[in-house]
TrEMBL record, chains A, D:
Family: Belongs to the binding-protein-dependent transport system permease family.
Location within or outside the cell: Cell membrane
This protein's name: Taurine transport system permease protein TauC
SUPFAM superfamilies registered for this protein in UniProt: MetI-like
CDD domains, sorted: TM_PBP2 (cd06261)
Membrane topology designation: Multi-pass membrane protein
Domain ABC transmembrane type-1: 55-237
């Protein structure tokens, strides 16, 4: 166990080392402060409660948008992947919404719904749904037809079919879109926050960027990344290991 | 008794916030019969969406932008705030003496090709030296902080930025080659025309008669207080993000220098500026506002 | 034209419990694979389907099971079926035990373990299909089909990949099942001995497009 | 053929119809102009050559970043998916780079490399590589071991194995990451352009957005989407149909 | 301990062309599946491997082929092998023809068509594996193994899922191939008749963990 756990820690350490070297070479703390220089501002932001406040706001938005986008995107992707007719109808919409700039969607949502939390989450969700749908559609197209036939003949219920026949086949696609999904969502949340919210990591990052305070930008960015690493190690990877057990057994 | 509320959407770190905070902290808002609520945003665009989306009653913009919106049918009204404008700065060791020395070099510009300072400087170069500044230099448009940073590192022959970045660049040793104010006077424009101001929707003003004047009064009170009393700046200082005393002094001086004279905007002088902008920036900049739209400037005394 | 086993048809035909297969023709793309194929299976009857490799046996089974609906003709069958495909077709991500219980909704875990033991997989309930040998997977597929007490049992070469002794056990098991629950059974085999032992009747496919070779079609009597 | 082609056209028409209705309901051409109102500015921008110029600049950037990100991302993803050791080493890096805000990477690239084309393309590529790698890693993990064994015993050359054994299995994952990839890249290019380039659709969109000119923002956004629809219909979908032929045959 | 067929070992052992299998033990997880299994195959010799389902036959073939290297013992084998897996294991996204030419680098298209014809798949060269019946897929897998003229031929139940006539053709084809190119051959079967007809020698697996049943291990003579 310890041998396995040391891998990630080592590689995080290596990354930190690289950063220290890069910072030393850059020799301009305004452009790239060394990791050590971030500790004090980090502790300060933490103790004043500013960082938890903004991080919390962002996490709530990310969580909402993630759940909504995964549900909607999976449903749409499955429908498109399984039925050529649905696909032909929705495909152009998918391409259009996929390539609609985040800015446009965000501004329209804010103007229609108002500068509210709901508008922010809607904007992010709308931005992300086509991404999820695209990935899941490919997964749905690759579903095994023999297993489908088996499920049909044995009259499995819709739930059983979904949980035990479809879902395990979609697992790699779900994992891929969940992981790259959270990343994209969080990037859009950043934009959403600086365009119309008064809280959140994106708001802080943009503000400190305007002030050209790279250290603070990094403090906020890395706090979120820290949370994501925790989610990855505590939730996603154990789940994936479980879901993948049959492959390696 | 319920006072009318003005919800102001401003850049959290904007210089306008210094004034608004001072208004609230010194109770100038209630004194003049309204309650001020400040919403901080991280980007200018956000403040505009807030007003348009009805989440705020007031934001900050230059009046040319407001004129454009008004001409396009929005009922925005402009209340003057500052006449601070940009300048073209050159690195400390630059040997440039006037704009002609920019020829063949790079100019870093925050705010894009329709930036008003850039347009005025182009007109000035044309009139003064017969030089097409746009054709004879290479322009690098970038986000203000990036222009600030690369300008300081000496990447450009000249830099044009927003005034508070300019103040920090000056504090960092850069030298002002030509100020937009000078250029504007040379072009026959009135340098006292305040470019920057608050804007509100007309129906908001109608719903609360006299609110524009009340707000303007509060704004003037703060300006007077800060001009007279050095000590009052100490309350503002934490917001100013000045890293050094030099930066603090420069920001303070530039801010005070930007305070316009009390009174309404001279619509005629504004008309001349707008005509020049329309000529230089074309429809892209002014939209349908080829002349100052009726009722653009609030009649504040 | 093609009325592929509409539920209405199925209900009607099943008044007498008779399974009717009336295929006029089946093509893949433009290639006709099956010509007219008509037969009946009475409840409790066991029928073997013979024919050379590639003639269309699996195609007929798929049509009967309702998996393939893209043919001309019509088919009536009971609701409650079980099938043994030519390949095991298990859920590789579920344990042997779950493969049984998921496919047979009412099956208790104890009954599933019992079913595993009967096909010689005692104690392997927690293994994933990938951890079983191919012969073990095939036996698991048999157990899955037998566990549900179906009205119609369809099997595509159920006893290959098994050594003589195991095959004998499986055949005996099949006989028991058929004797106990009396499903209508249609199965494909290449071993005539197997067919003669298990089946009441043998159908043989011949020709291109394939039809039932005339002397063996004894179904007219049921019409 | 015509019956099949009419599906997408119909659905684009439906989307346009929806837009017309929404515009009519909004009744404020500054917030949502009707599609008709875009025609004139579009033609004007086209004839002055402004739109082709900026669109061209953006397309070049998108193309570069796309090719680089797909190549690098596929290589990294494959390596991580096939070797548990490589995965353990690189996984934290992947999570970190996946969740590093675009803004941070872009600003750092601009500051280090300068406000140049190379910096812009590097920034976009770095933003996108972890996304591709995440998706491809899942694909690599799902590769069929029996086919691998077959390829090994028959001593297939590395190229043959890659082209005929690995690639077809990765195809759904490649299609998913290519499609959602272009979309993400183009969204990041927008940010890159407004932060530090003097040309490109993103530059124009941001400028018109500052002027609150939604019509022009839409003209530019839709021009790019038009190009993407063309790419989708002329290149991606025919290729996909070919690659998927064995499934439907 | 486990020195799984290092190239050095392989080269050395092959000086005399002899294929040596010396398995000490093989476990899956903690379950031992194979005990000591030692045998030799001389060039040109054909050996059949028999045993009940699930005993470990496929496991031995996989170890011999170098697919499974996680065992204790050592194995030496020639470079140039061909294998027929228990399941067809074709590339479903490549045509039948490409499946032959991709696995056999030197094979011309004409030769591949010829090979298809010999297993009764004439004219089906453009079909994807999914468009073939299982028996046809198995024949394609046989054609793939035969086309390369290997030094070592490994086959896992090559003739199941085929009707008697087709099976006979395939067995005859195998005999021809063995006579022509004289590969060392190891094959698994459940049909003793098949084993006796093709093989020079029969090995039988028994027990748990499985070992070669003593009276049939005639390999000592080769040592
Ligand atoms: N990955 C695995 N994990 C655990 N046990 C396994 C695994 N693979 C195979 N086994 C077990 O090893 C034993 C031997 O398997 P093998 O496939 O070699 O059998 P076989 O002799 O080829 O049987 P058959 O004739 O049914 O194909 C079986 O009992 C099987 O359940
Ligand atoms: N999807 C398809 N497209 C084209 N031809 C197909 C397709 N599926 C099957 N065929 C052809 O139809 C014929 C019948 O196939 P089927 O699987 O029913 O044969 P079978 O009698 O079960 O043979 P086997 O005993 O080998 O399993 C074969 O010649 C096969 O090549
Ligand atoms: Mg068949
Ligand atoms: Mg086996």
């Amino acid at each position: 166990m310890t041998g396995k756990a040391s891998g990630p820690l080592l590689s995080v350490a290596a990354l930190l080392g690289l950063w220290v070297v890069a910072a030393a070479l850059t020799a301009d703390p305004q452009i790239l402060p060394s990791p050590l220089a971030l500790w004090q501002p980090f502790v300060r932001e933490l103790s004043t409660g500013t960082l938890p406040h903004h991080l919390g706001a962002t996490l709530v938005r990310v969580a909402w948008a993630f759940v909504l986008a995964m549900l909607l995107g999976t449903a749409i992707g499955l429908a498109m992947g399984r039925s050529e007719r649905v696909n032909r109808l929705l495909d152009p919409w998918l391409v259009i919404f996929l390539n609609l700039p985040a800015l446009v969607l965000i501004v329209l949502c804010y103007l229609w719904i108002g500068l509210t939390e709901a508008a922010a989450i809607t904007a992010v969700t709308l931005n992300k749904v086509p991404n999820v749908a695209t990935v899941i559609r490919e997964g749905a197209r690759a579903l095994d037809r023999d297993l489908d036939a088996m499920a049909k003949v044995y009259r499995m219920s819709a739930t059983t079919r979904f949980l035990h026949v479809t879902l395990p086949q979609l697992a790699p696609f779900l994992a891929a879109s969940a992981r790259s999904g959270i990343a994209v969502i969080w990037k859009i949340v950043l934009v959403v926050e600086f365009l119309g919210r008064s809280s959140g990591v994106g708001f802080q990052i943009h503000m400190y960027f305007q002030l050209f305070d790279v250290a603070m930008v990094l403090v906020y960015a890395l706090s979120f990344i820290g949370v994501m690493l925790a989610v990855e190690w505590a939730i996603l990877q154990p789940w994936e290991r479980r879901a993948r057990r049959w492959r390696t057994a | 008794q319920d006072l009318p509320v003005i919800r102001a959407a401003v850049l959290q770190i904007g210089t306008v916030n210094w004034e608004l905070t001072a208004i609230r902290e010194n109770g100038f808002d209630t004194e003049h019969g309204f309650d001020l609520e400040v919403q901080g945003y991280a980007d200018n665009a956000a403040t505009r969406i807030a007003v348009e989306g009805g989440e705020a009653d007031m934001a900050v913009a230059d009046w040319i932008w407001v004129a454009r919106q008004r001409a396009a049918g929005k009922d925005y009204v402009f209340i003057p705030y500052s006449k601070a404008v940009g300048a073209l700065l050159v690195p400390e060791d630059s040997e440039a003496e006037d704009l002609t020395d920019m020829a063949g070099g790079k100019i870093g510009i925050a705010g894009g090709p329709l930036d008003k300072s850039w347009l005025i400087l182009r007109a000035y170069a044309q009139q003064e030296y017969g030089m097409d500044l746009k054709a004879e230099t290479e322009q690098v448009f970038g986000a203000p902080p990036l222009i600030f940073k690369s300008g300081l590192s000496g990447d450009y022959a000249g830099s044009i930025n927003f005034w508070h970045f300019l103040a920090k660049m000056k504090a960092g040793g850069m030298r002002e080659l030509v100020s937009v104010e000078t250029a504007a006077s040379e072009l026959g424009l009135d340098p006292d025309t305040p470019l920057l101001g608050y804007y509100m929707k007309e129906d908001f003003i109608e719903a609360h008669p006299g609110i524009a004047q009340s707000f303007y009064n509060a704004s003037r009170d703060v300006k007077d207080m800060l001009a007279d009393d050095d000590g009052a700046w100490e309350a503002v200082r934490p917001q100013m993000n000045a890293k050094t005393d030099a930066q603090f002094e420069q920001l303070k001086a530039d801010w005070l220098a930007g305070a316009p004279a009390r009174g309404p905007v001279d619509a005629e002088a504004a008309g001349r500026l707008l005509a020049l902008m329309a000529e230089l920036g074309g429809e892209e900049l002014v939209g349908e506002a080829t002349t100052v739209p009726e009722g653009l400037f609030a009649d504040v005394q | 034209m093609g009325d592929p086993a509409a539920v209405g048809t199925a209900g009607e035909a099943l008044a007498d419990g008779m399974i009717r297969v009336d295929i006029l023709s089946k093509r893949y793309g433009r290639v006709p694979v099956l010509g007219p194929v008509h037969f009946r299976i009475a409840p409790g009857e066991t029928v073997a389907l013979l024919g050379p490799s590639g003639i269309g046996k699996s195609t007929i089974l798929r049509i009967l099971a309702g998996i393939d609906t893209d043919f001309e003709g019509c088919v009536s069958r009971p609701e409650h079926m079980a099938i043994v495909f030519q390949e095991p077709t298990l859920l590789p991500w579920r344990s042997a035990l779950r493969n049984l219980t998921l496919a047979n909704a009412g099956l208790s875990e104890a009954a599933a373990r019992e079913a595993l033991a009967r096909v010689g997989l005692k104690g392997r309930g927690e293994a994933f299909p990938g951890q079983l040998s191919l012969g073990q997977q095939r036996r698991l597929a048999l157990a899955r089909a037998f566990a549900g007490r179906p009205e119609l049992l369809i099997m595509d070469e159920p006893f290959v990949s098994l050594d003589a002794k195991t095959a004998e056990t499986m055949i005996a098991l099949t006989e028991t099942l058929i004797a106990e629950t009396r499903p209508a059974t249609l199965f494909v085999t290449h071993a005539r001995a197997e067919a003669e032992r298990l089946a009441d009747r043998i159908l043989e496919l011949r020709g291109e497009p394939a039809t039932l070779s005339p002397h063996l079609v004894q179904t007219e009597g049921y019409d």
